[in-house]
Amino acid sequence: MKLHYRSNLLAGIVSVLGGIACLLIIPAQIGKDYAVTYGITSKTIPQAVAILWIVCGLVLIVQSLVFHKDTVKTLEVGKELKALLYMAVLVVYMLTFRHGFLISTILLGLITLALTGCKKPLYYGIVALTVVLLWLAFTYVLHVRLP
Amino acid sequence: MKKAVAILLTLALLMSAAALADYAPAKDMNIRVPFAAGGAVDTQARIIAQGLQEAFGKTVFINNLTGANGAIAAADLASVAPDATEMMAGGIAMFTLTPLFNPSVGLKLEDYQIVTGINSEDQMLYVNPGLTGIRDWDGLVEYAKDHRIVFGSNTPGGATHLLATVLFGEAGIQAEAVTSDGSAKDLLALAGGNVVCAVASTSVGAQYVEEGTLLPIVVMSEEPYTGFEGIEVPTAQSLGYDIVFKTCNFIMTSKDADPAEVEAIYQAILAYSETDAFKTAAANANWVPVLADGATVKANIEAARALCEYGFNTYYAQ
Amino acid sequence: MSEVILSALAQLATLENLLFTNIGIFIGIIFGAIPGLNGNLAITILLPFTFQLGTVPALLMLTGIFFGANFGGSISAILINTPGTNAAAATLIDGYPMCQKGKPQKALDTALVASTVGGLISALCLLFFTPQISKIAIKFGAPEYFALALFGLSVIASVSGKSLIKGLISGGLGILLSTVGIDSISGLTRFTFGNIRLYNGVKMLAVLLGVYAIAQMIVRVANPENGKASEMQASGENDRLTGAEVKQSLWTMIKSALIGAFIGAVPGTGGAIASFIAYNEAKRCAKPGEKFGEGELKGVAAPEAANNGATAATLIPLLTMGIPGDVVAATLLGAFTMHGLVVGPKLFSNSGPVLYAILIGCVISQLFMFFQGKYLLKLFVKITHIPQQLLTAMLVVICCAGAFAIGKSEMDITVMLIFGIVAYLMQKLDFPPVPIVLGMVLGPIAESNLRNSLVMSGGSWAIFVQRPICLAFILLTFVLIWLLKKGDARQRAATQKFMKDESEETPE
Fold first, then answer.
1. What pLDDT digit, counting tens, does each position of A112-125 carry?
2. Cβ contacts of A99 on chain B, cutoff 8 Å
3. Do A127 and C390 make contact, defined as CB atoms within 8 angstroms?
4. Which domain holds residue C64?
5. Does residue C507 sit within a domain?
6. Count of A–C CB contacts within 8 Å?
7. How far does the CA of residue A33 sit from the closest CA of chain B (Å)?
8. For residue range A17-27, what is the model confidence (pLDDT) as tens digits?
9. CA-CA distance, C446 to C146, in Å (whole number)?
10. Which conformational region is residue C194 in: left (phi greater than 0), alpha (psi within -120 to 50 degrees), or beta?
């Protein structure tokens, strides 16, 4: 199955939404300055970026809808599902590595291999060994205590 | 004064021999340093680590855990069982300024025992006489009558910003800060004529003063500063402003660690500080060690806290 | 003066110095080449060891690491499209396409020659012109920094690929990311979401690893069949850097090295800015037929000459004013102090011979780096022979460990993974990743110096046109944008003659 989308149009929409989201969270995330500011406060630059996003997003949307300056891109759903699956793996890893770097990272390496369709047991061994060596090198040579 | 120090040191050495005899740490030691590797405190902690390593025959790790004004290193310290071998370097701002400006990360002095002081430095106000003609405080006050005063300092929440703000505030002079992330940059801005004055510690300004580019005109201590040849720097107090603030750094551990073991480590550091190896290393690193005991360091912090609270309430909190 | 130099040479000419300089360079190259590991970590680890050495060999080893790491960063940029250091981010724009087209060895050799040229020019500037340069550098105040940052940001125009608008959006993301943490002007926290681990901001290296390495891994997992044969053309016979090519790009290298040396000498700036500005300049001067962004030799030569051109020059403000250009330089600053060289305006008169021994050593180091690089690169290029499946999995785990090593913080791994996912999605929408780097490097410089400038002037924006250096930079920015637009159009016209098909469907 394939999905088609217009790159500029979608990028424009994402950019405008990003800008609005940014404007909305600024008041909660940035406080009031202690000293004189001459018009440029701690909020100014983030707000400017948000406005830049909205303006650029609108330009992209106009380019796409009015001037038809756009490229149609194709998504192969099968592949993207696989990408999504891998992203999910990364998120799970993000939550688990702090409970044990060694095991979670070996698992991450092995899952990565499995998802690329690797069938050679030797590679699985090499990746697991790499993690162990990394762990040993970090702990005993570099004195970086991994979680 | 010198005699008293000598007697104290001898006493300390004697005590250290006794204390060392019955303390043998069971594991390697770990000193968390909440500042970047290569900085002054990092260097000093590494030299101390060298001494501890020799004294106790255990490896002493220096672990640079920067961020959140020490709260990250403190969190790491809190995550291990309290023990004298689990230490952390600290700075006065963690207990004085940070709790005021960033209440969510402020540490509590009561939660820690101080193992040893590391350093203690005066902060002073520098000017650039070659560019502005200012040579003393009166000159600065005069200059302020027809010029804007722009000073170099760190950001609100930092010691030099607070000291300058309070000094100019008390003197009734309108002044604004050009901020940076290091005193070296502030002094460069002063040398380049981009600010009128700057607050920095004695050591950062030393070479500029020696060279004759910059001149210290006020020191925030109880006694005038005479460390620079041919210059006596008057105190803020002598000018009528009650501002006394010595920045200091120290090594601390959890309050629940065994005080006898903490004392043994302190004595080992004092003993090491008498060796030639230590003296050479310290001299090389441009470090004037002030290995004060825990009570002295805590008293210094408490005293500074009052000034910080006053400054914060008067000039920052609205 | 000549006495000082003679006594410096006497201190320098020992077997010990030779040995430790080379060890330093070797370690530096290796640490620079491994994603996540960097010169900073190497210097920190070896610092205690150097206490057993004399001042000269110790500091030569540590500066060797500094130089080596800066070059090493380009190796991973070229071979695996992941900058090993911040300064190598501009190198991959053309370096990786060269590698994909079956010319990894040529790209690496170009980087090596350019780095050596850059390093030599820079080290010579350090040796001979330090006093003069620091006199100019002292004139740099907040308005000049702001103008320099603005100038740097204008480079976004040339690294945005097909759409400038999308480049601006990416650049905005970089600037926004750089605001996370405690604001360097007001002391307030921004976008920390109550997490104290964000108080010091988002680390750029972690973002880079995510945007380049992790996003790429997601692509490879989704398209495993691509990696097998088609993506990487076998390196063929002409994968050698010829003398003619060196000659052709020599002027680019020298010019870039001078740009690098100038930017490096400005206190508080470093190789990352220099390499982008040099890339931009090389692209502006492009001749018809040179396709920047698609594997142009000069596109590798320019940033590499510039970032190594910045390395030795960055020691100028470091030694005379105590102001480091980047994190690695900051650690090096500590190392100098620990070995008894107290940096500051009096350093040269206080510790002349030792210092000159080290500075001359820095010049010679560049040559050692060249010879070491020559042999090491032959080994490194074998990375391209590792089967893609294995390489992908190994890189993922190396990045995870490397990200942790940046700041010993779990936050860095999290940031890396999040931006890997974000960058993958951005790729789907054709947002270029390079402007993110520019935004992150230059955003904070632009913002804080804009605000400081206005404090200096009492709120008057006229300050930016009243100061000569500042005005010159601002004018230069506009002139270059205009020239670039013109050059771009010319180049596009030339390219379109050759390639008529406008198919947008690029394989990932």
1. 999 988 888 999 99
2. none
3. yes
4. 2-494
5. no
6. 197
7. 9
8. 999 999 999 99
9. 5
10. left
